[in-house]
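Sample A.
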Amino acid sequence: MAITVNIYYSGIKGNARKFAEEMVSSGVVKDIRAENGNLRYEYFYPMEDEETVLLIDSWNDQQAIDVHHASPMMAKIMDLREKYDLHMKVERYVSDETGVPELDQAFIKE
């Protein structure tokens, strides 16, 4: 059962994008992706909101998230969030192991 957390980082004057860029350029994102249990760690930019960045962060289970939260990586992330004065909105999802229902598959082009 994978757990996916969507984090919306918001700031002013492009700070959310600067944060995401520094997360990548500093190697923090690469290190997080290498952590045991990480399935996905990607940033996206909403087309209609230039002051927000969406992070899709997915893990094998809660234990993997707990280990990540206890890692030195979190101090780096928190320092950067403070540097760019970001605010967050968080959504959490648990995967549906049954897959896409057959009726919904008619709308999916692979």
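Sample B, a different protein:
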Amino acid sequence: MSEQITLQLQQRSVRGTNASRRLRRVEHMIPGVLYGEAGDTQSVMISDVEFGKALQEESFFSQVLNAELDGEQIPTVVKDLQRHPASNRVLHFDLLRISEDNEIQVSVPLHFLNEETCIGVKLGGGNIARSITELEIRCLPKHLPEYIEVDLAEVEAGQTIHLSDLSLPEGVEFLHATDHVHDSPVVSITTRRGGKVDEDEEDADEGDEEQEAA
């Protein structure tokens, strides 16, 4: 379990595009909003250095963040980040207040285990093809996992793991249905293309070796 991330927020009195641009360029602050749970929407800001450091943690998007504002400790989750299309720099953030009694909807990363020892790769010569790297879930804050594990140890070449094959932690459910229509593939072990051609080439090589031996 990762250490809880704390964000030191400050009240933001200025609003608008020009004001936000000045905050980022001159004061090195990132503007944002804090909203939800029957509270007023508050305009806030945070140091770009502090926010950038927090972003380096994989669990940033999949844990309850402790937002400190005017001496108050506020449990929150990230709901949205706006980034610059060219530099990918964060321009604005949205934080949602949460309570322990209400479910939240978030995306959590998938951790693929035993890739090196996967049967389909090690013995079948296949390749790992990931279709999904994060998963949208619904749960109470106390059940929020930092990630969901996908064990590839026994997956054979040509086999696909679907959403319905995943084991979710207690109290966690998929945000969307996983029936036969929506049961999306998560990861596959693909077989090498041109298998028949490879076999023909092997036969030809064996024939050459026999002729040389003769």
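Observation for Sample B: Residues 39 and 97 are 8 Å apart (CA to CA).
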